[in-house]
DNA sequence: AAAGATGCCAACCGCAGAGAG
DNA sequence: ACTCTCTGCGGTTGGCATCTT
């Protein structure tokens, strides 16, 4: 026997909300609140909508102080950190980003951030990047016209490389990225602190400050596709239900297994496990958000150190 | 200029957990 | 202890906008 539907599907309206519906819902909730019963709410205000739909509309769109689009680097980093640690628990991630909704973050992750992190940049972003580059180039040219580059593309204003997002760290002036050292302190440290606290609450990784940067071998060796997950020897903490037990060194196998357990939740990061379909991931192209070391790493070595935003994944969640 | 491809985002669907009765 | 209802969440889809060819 199936579950009773939450509303009469035949008599409710579906699809985009009209401004009138928005206004009705908004003014009612602002004056009366939800009354603790979303199912009854649409009838009260004469909306032919499912209660769930009203709730969603309010939470994702009508609620005060909702931000849409324009995610900052800082927000990118928070999302990434938390995603790596707790997986696709968007509501928890959203709770760390005031004004953002879980739906928004989920969409952003699925459509942009995932690609941005792994070099598959959207055309829109590429365009923005190119415009930024050209602007910078123009500015630089203005300052030092005498500088002859010999690059045929330079004179035409076209970047010499496919100017992907991740190239910025290598080819252009690097904007302040969280995690970078700047005037004696790391940008984003305050954010790290709040994430640490959250993860601690969730029984997740122990605070960064107590952890050394993990040294991991990338999953793929150039020219020798492997299905092996990353072989890492990471000093980290072990957890039990009560929280942190203390620092210990996890054998690579244990960590590898953990990666597998969290595999579903880490969809999109599967190249870290060596399980991606693309066997030719270039670690030098992985975003510095994922691997800050990339800004200086030499890809020619075939094996290079990488780390996941400073912190080993919390692998036992959910 | 037009058609097809791709990207983006709002909204829907269904499951799971919490809480009331 | 059990059932039922409601809420919250995450995955997925549909449709519009934009881009490419």
Automatic annotation (TrEMBL):
The entry's keywords: DNA-binding, Nucleus, Repeat, Transcription, Transcription regulation
PROSITE patterns in alphabetical order: HTH_MYB (PS51294), MYB_LIKE (PS50090)
Region of interest (Disordered), residue spans: 119-159
Stored InterPro entries: Homeodomain-like_sf, Myb_dom, SANT/Myb
GO cellular component terms listed in the entry, alphabetical order: nucleus
This protein's name: Uncharacterized protein
Domain Myb-like stretches: 9-62, 63-113
Molecular function, one GO term: DNA binding
Keyword Manganese: no
Predominant cellular place of this UniProt entry's protein: nucleus
Annotated organism of origin: Urochloa decumbens
Locations listed in the record: Nucleus
CDD domains per record: SANT
HTH myb-type domain sequence ranges: 9-62, 63-117
């Amino acid at each position: 026997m199936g579950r009773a539907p939450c509303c009469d599907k035949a008599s409710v309206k579906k699809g985009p909300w009209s401004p009138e519906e928005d206004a009705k819902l908004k003014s009612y909730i602002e004056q009366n609140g939800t009354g603790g019963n979303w199912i009854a709410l649409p009838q009260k205000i004469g909306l032919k909508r499912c209660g769930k739909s009203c709730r969603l509309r309010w939470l994702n769109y009508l609620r005060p102080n909702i931000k849409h689009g324009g995610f900052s680097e800082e927000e990118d980093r928070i999302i990434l950190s938390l995603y790596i640690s707790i997986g696709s628990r968007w509501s928890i991630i959203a709770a760390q980003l005031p004004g953002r909704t879980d739906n928004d973050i989920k969409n952003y992750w699925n459509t942009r951030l995932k690609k941005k992190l792994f070099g598959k940049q959207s055309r829109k972003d590429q365009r923005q990047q190119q415009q930024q580059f050209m602007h910078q180039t123009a500015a630089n040219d203005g300052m030092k016209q005498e500088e002859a580059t010999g690059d045929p593309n330079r004179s035409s204003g076209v970047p010499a490389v496919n100017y992907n997002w991740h190239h910025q760290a290598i080819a252009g002036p690097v904007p302040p990225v969280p995690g970078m050292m700047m005037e004696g302190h790391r940008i984003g440290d305050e954010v790290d602190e709040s994430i640490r606290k959250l993860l601690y609450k969730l029984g997740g990784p122990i605070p960064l400050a107590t952890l050394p940067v993990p040294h991991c071998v990338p999953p793929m060796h150039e020219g020798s596709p492997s299905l092996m997950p990353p072989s890492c020897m990471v000093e980290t903490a072990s957890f039990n239900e009560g929280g942190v037990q203390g620092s210990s060194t996890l054998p690579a196998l244990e960590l590898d297994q953990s990666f597998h357990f969290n595999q579903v939740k880490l969809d999109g990061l599967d190249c870290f496990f060596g399980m991606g379909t693309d066997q030719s991931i270039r670690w030098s192209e992985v975003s510095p958000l994922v691997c800050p070391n990339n800004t200086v790493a030499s890809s020619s070595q075939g094996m290079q150190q990488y780390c996941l935003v400073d912190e080993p994944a919390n692998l036992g969640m959910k």
